[in-house]
Amino acid sequence: MHQLIGKMFAPAFSNKLLNQQHDGAAIDLGNGTKIAFTTDSFVVSPLFFPGGNIGTLAVNGTVNDLAMCGAKPLYLSAGFIIEEGLPMETLWQVVHSMSEATETAGVQLVTGDTKVVDRGKGDGIYINTAGIGLIDSDRAISPTQIQPGDKILINGDLGRHGMAIMAVREGLEFETEIKSDCAPLVDPVFALLDAGIEVHCLRDLTRGGLATTLVEIAESINTHLHISEAAVPVREDVRGACEILGFDPFYVANEGRFMAFVPPDDAGRAIEILRQFPDGDQAAIIGDVTEKSGTVVTMKSQIGATRILDMLSGEQLPRIC
Amino acid sequence: MHQLIGKMFAPAFSNKLLNQQHDGAAIDLGNGTKIAFTTDSFVVSPLFFPGGNIGTLAVNGTVNDLAMCGAKPLYLSAGFIIEEGLPMETLWQVVHSMSEATETAGVQLVTGDTKVVDRGKGDGIYINTAGIGLIDSDRAISPTQIQPGDKILINGDLGRHGMAIMAVREGLEFETEIKSDCAPLVDPVFALLDAGIEVHCLRDLTRGGLATTLVEIAESINTHLHISEAAVPVREDVRGACEILGFDPFYVANEGRFMAFVPPDDAGRAIEILRQFPDGDQAAIIGDVTEKSGTVVTMKSQIGATRILDMLSGEQLPRIC
User: Fold this and answer.
1) Which residues of B touch A13 (CB under 8 A)?
2) Fewest C-beta in 10 Å: which of A15, A251, A284, B83?
């Protein structure tokens, strides 16, 4: 996918805004109005999982991409591709969840479209959402703002969304049910910004998880990032599920987790703020941006060795969102 | 579909912007900046047809929805849902066509997303586009602006897109190849506006064609519209194809055709302007808005009788866009 985007889509549509390579495009409309614009399609299978469904994902996924641009999410579009024969009850549950999710995230769904495809030419329902958010005009949050010395923070434990999906797919039952962390990230992001934390970059840890996201950022700014394995919080049940199924939690998708790059002086205060949010008690400083150039991410492992983190090649978990 | 939207989506997401029931939402961002925001998913089958492909449709469909709001289309997002096994060559042709279509329409594709679904769970490729356009702040173009006495104009002959698709599906060959009318409508729309034509409402004649669109508008403003069958241009080859296949050209989808509601004094000048555009030589005044209230559309037939036009029930042509 990374190659497909780099070799086909990026050259075909090359323009200054697309080339930002961020979770969304930041667009200056003039008159002091700056917006972020983003889109995502959702094809998760199964449609329903502990902690959410394709509808909650479709709202929060786009809301969070906007928040990662430092934009206040305001307006969403929704495009439904429905397979002939989908029970109305299923569609209604998804739509109802989307409606609740828009209220929770403080956004309005303002325009939509519905298409029906023949039986066997879809998989129940696919949803695309696009979103518009307003950016405070003096705020620049993007990989290019990252400075050597910045601390890398995450807002909680990793791997729950991916493992919630896998548990359903594989029919596994654990002692405690693993629920997706799917949630809107607007409040924690704006709590950081409103507290005057100098946030340089934000990125949510969705497809490919923490490790892939770190490598993408390191590549895009040609800078060395270093993290400590011991500092990254992973719940015991998630770690156990990963071991049973042969996954690495660092590569598992999350839907309510993000990374923030902040100056070292702000890091402690930022963690205090992040810990005040639901599910945020394990927010942690996991690493830093070094002085070295070169696109590489290293991790000090639990036993003290240092190894290179690679991007996920192939899909560890297809159709996770 | 009309019922699904009315009974499920509209109540679930009810808000002032969604309730505009136009081709897109008009949003005031403050500071004198007003945008239009719209989305469409494209599931056309086959992916390629005379005059275009799913990629050109995906760009022009959303560009035209923005133009119908009187907005200057500027930015697009694209979400691709690709079936595993789609030949790269096919994807490249679609992406290349989209790139060309964005240049022709004067828009930039600024953000995108790609998902891959398992073989058999898609149908080659589905594309969603969402778009943002800028609205001149003093311009109100919507069904509520329609006045009794307004003339109803169309910018050319009807039925080509639908018949181009059907000819490919049915393997029919006519003496002349029927090509889709798929085209961006930005230039003719802005030619009307820039010439000072008092445009009250615009609507493109896509799914459901002219008749369904007229009924939707009449219903939304509780007003009687009257058209003359003889005034509506349909090419002979399109009429012939419709007869062979049992379609009514008034219900066949178009992708480069729109309706404009203008005051009677502006109608003649508007037609002159529309006729200057490629494929616009058959632009015509086809009817008017009467003084009567009541949601009904009537048509004076070729033989002089008056009959009521109904909305298309069921899909005459599924997966036409």
Assistant:
1) 98-99, 102, 108-109, 112
2) A15
* Record: contact A79-B79, CB cut-off 8 A: yes
Look at residues A63, A57, A314, A51 and name the one whose alpha carbon lies nearest to residue A208: A314
Q: In chain B, what residues touch A112 (CB-CB under 8 Å)?
A: 5, 9, 13, 18, 39
Instruction: Give one DSSP letter per residue of B105-121, joined into a string.
Output: HT-EEEEEEEEEE-TTS
In B, minimum Cα distance to A26 occurs at B110
What are A67-116's pLDDT values in tens digits?
999 999 999 999 999 999 999 999 999 999 999 999 999 999 999 999 99
Q: Identify the residue among A2, A74, A113, A142 best suited for mutation to test binding to B, counting B beta carbons within 10 A and taking the highest.
A: A113
The span from the CA of A287 to the CA of A25, in Å, is: 27
Q: What are A137-165's pLDDT values in tens digits?
A: 788 899 999 999 999 999 999 999 999 99
Q: In B106-257, which residue ranges form alpha helices assigned H by DSSP?
A: 160-170, 186-194, 209-221, 236-245
Kindly determine whether residue B109 and residue A18, on different chains, have CB atoms separated by under 8 Å. yes
Report all structural domains of chain B as residue ranges with CATH numbers, in order of start: 2-135 (3.30.1330.10), 143-308 (3.90.650.10)
Q: In degrees to the nearest 10, what's the CA dihedral of A113, A118, A119, A121? A: -80
**Inter-CA distances, A59 with A109, A175, B9, B28, Å:** 9, 30, 15, 22
* CA angle at A46 for the pair A171 and A178, rounded to the nearest 5°: 55
CB–CB contacts below 8 A, A to B = 199
Single pTM value for the model: 0.94
CB < 8 Å to B8, chain A: 91-92, 95
Within 8 A of B41 by CB-CB distance, chain A residues are 79-81, 113-115, 128
Q: Whose CA is closest to B143, among B210, B226, B200? A: B200
Given 3-state DSSP classes, what are the helix, strand and coil percentages for chain B, each rounded to the nearest 5?
Answer: 35, 25, 40
